[in-house]
TrEMBL record:
Statement: the UniProt record of this protein carries the keyword RNA-binding: no
Low complexity bias: start-end ranges: 363-380
UniProt keyword annotations, A-Z: DNA-binding, Transcription, Transcription regulation, Two-component regulatory system
OmpR/PhoB-type domain span: 5-103
Residues covered by region (Disordered): 351-380
A GO term, aspect molecular function: DNA binding
Protein name (Swiss-Prot/TrEMBL): OmpR/PhoB-type domain-containing protein
InterPro entries: AfsR-DnrI-RedD_regulator, BTAD, OmpR/PhoB-type_DNA-bd, P-loop_NTPase, Sig_transdc_resp-reg_C-effctor, TPR-like_helical_dom_sf, WH-like_DNA-bd_sf
UniProt-listed GO biological process terms: phosphorelay signal transduction system; regulation of DNA-templated transcription
Amino acid sequence: MAGEKERAQEQPLRFTVLGPVRAWRGEEQVSTGSPQQRALLTALLLRGGRTATAPELIDALWGDDPPDAAIAALRTYASRLRKAFTPQSDVLVSESGGYAVQVGLGALDTDVAERLVAEAEKARHSGDRPRAHELIGQALGLWDGEPLAGVPGPYAVTQRARLSEWHLVLTETRLDLDLELGHHTEVVSELTALTAAHPLRERLRELLMLALYRSGRQAEALAVYNDTRRLLAEDLGVDPCPELSELHQRILQADAELAAPVDDRAHAGPSFVRPAQLPATVADFTGRVAFVDELSEQLATAEGRVMAVSAVAGIGGVGKTTLAVHVAHAARHQFPTASSTSTFRGRARYRRSPTRSWAPSCAPSAPRTTRSPRASRSAPRSTARCWTAARCSPCSTTHATPHRCGRCCPVRRAAPR
């Protein structure tokens, strides 16, 4: 029994704010104290590990009417939180006259939701709508009632409104995916309730009209538009947005394309291939464990955020390109829209600028036709490139990246200088 308790104490803390503000150690809930203590914890958690100064925290908790002993109260709340978090009390740190909460990756439910939403956007962009729908559903499942429930203070009021709006936006995205997947009949009742709760939200009205029309209820879809137009004119003196008016016209015209979900429509025009142009990796890659782990971690945690460029430096021949290609293959699933490689010809006489090198590979390309070996061999040697990624027996060269080769490769592809 004592051993189980010790193991539970060693588990890292995790926090939830998409509902009541709570702290957990494994499956055990940790007390966060009074509403004011939870307000302090909220103000620190939602700053992403950044330090909040004492004046910022006083303003977050009490606004324009702080108590006389506000600084002392902050210190008391911080001390009580540290005691509650023991033995992980070091997550709450004092720094430069302020405080910060520093937690691990995935320890805060908003961070988990952001990661799921970023993965859903990638899946939707790549055409995997069922996966995107599943991920958005998982993100919405993290909400547990009203965000920051029962937490006082002006900062909590602002963040509660932000998180509630985010929840509504994600709900609209999930309902939009439902319609794209053909679940129009199932979402009519939910959309009806949401439009009643948010009568001025035109996006919800648009989704309801589309769901009704695809369910064979054209008259009711038109009635939703008329009700929206009347409501906006009476309350705000404005007309419906262009998207809603366009949908109204398409319903009046019985647009056949509108009646079919996205997955059922015939995609007109040529299809395009997303760039997937990494050279082959070495099958028996060994060593460089620290570099592989560091680069892989940076790529795996870059979802939905701007990432700094990672550079691998070293003298020629030490394996920089092999390392980069190996890590790129391992992280390829993190970037489903494109994976490519390019050379800047750093040691050549005529070097390429990064913009010129990457521009052709950043855009989707049309399907390529395969050239016959005979046609390829007829290309001039000076413009031939070797794309072989294995050791070539005639010249005993391992080609890790495309380069010019005039004598060893049986199949060459013409490429401009």
